[in-house]
Amino acid sequence: MGVRDLIRRHQGYVISVPAFLWQFLFLFLPFLIVIVASVYSRFSGFTIQFYGELFTVAHFDIIFRSLLLAFINAFFCMVIAYPVAYFVSFRARRWKNLLVFLLTLPFWVNFLVHVYSWFFILERNGLLNKFLLGLHVIREPLHLMNSLFAVTLVMFYVYLPFMVLPIYVIFEKFDWRLIEASLDLGAGKRETFWHVTFPLTLSGAQLGFFLVLGMSFGEFIIPQLLNGGKSFFVGTLISDYFIVSRNLATGSAFTCLSAIMIMAFMFVCYLIFRLIKRSAK
């Protein structure tokens, strides 16, 4: 068998080689280097002393704060994205293509532009304070910048499209004949949604939830710019270890510890999703 025949026979695998290679070079290999750096020292060889330095209240407080922020962001994104995806998929009709285009439009704009644009909205003399002052809702400008509120709001704004699109894709593949069959058999709209629509579209919400949760947990640009350095999060502390203090070993150990914590938390969330799906059937 010649090379061309072999390529044609396994064409699907051959096409996927560049993607696997890219993922190996820029995901698995760097993470492998980080794992090795967290347990190896050129002075003492293999050691776990760098992990021992992390077992402090301050480090775990940063991890749990980041987990809480990531969970809140993923939860609210899912709550808002589900009806948005439902509306775009089934109610928008002739406006569907335009709305899908608007949903993908944020991906065309640089991430930093997204973040910096909120400075003009949230600052003391920004658009939001001027709007509220003009309506006489407040008497003095609110202190919105350099706060946890600003971080949460901007993270919600930035990551909402990552939640909407997976749910929208599932809705687009949904077979509406199942709903018609449920209604014909005497089920109400609420029962049909809870026992038919919701279980069959929960996979999209679950995918979007884990996607937003993981990215929110490691986010460092938004907390760095909008939190004013008042508190550390996982992403900001990792960048501080690697870039500022040049403590590569401890930074690598903290990265691995954070990865273990977020994977454990995702597993718990996965079990919760399974319970929800079972209760909806």
List keywords for this structure.
281 residues, mainly alpha, MetI-like fold, two-stranded antiparallel ribbon, 1% strand
Structure characterization notes:
- The chain has helices spanning 3-9, 11-39, 49-52, 57-90, 96-104, 111-117, 119-122, 127-134, 148-172, 177-184, 189-217, 221-226, 234-244, 248-280, and strands at residues 40-41, 45-46.
- The chain is an all-alpha fold and 281 residues long.
- It folds into 2 domains: 1-47, no CATH class; 58-280, MetI-like fold (Orthogonal Bundle).
- The chain has a two-stranded antiparallel ribbon.
- A hairpin with a 3-residue loop joins strand 1 (40-41) and strand 2.
- Helix 4 (57-90) crosses helix 11 (189-217) and helix 13 packs antiparallel against helix 14 (248-280).
- The protein is globular.
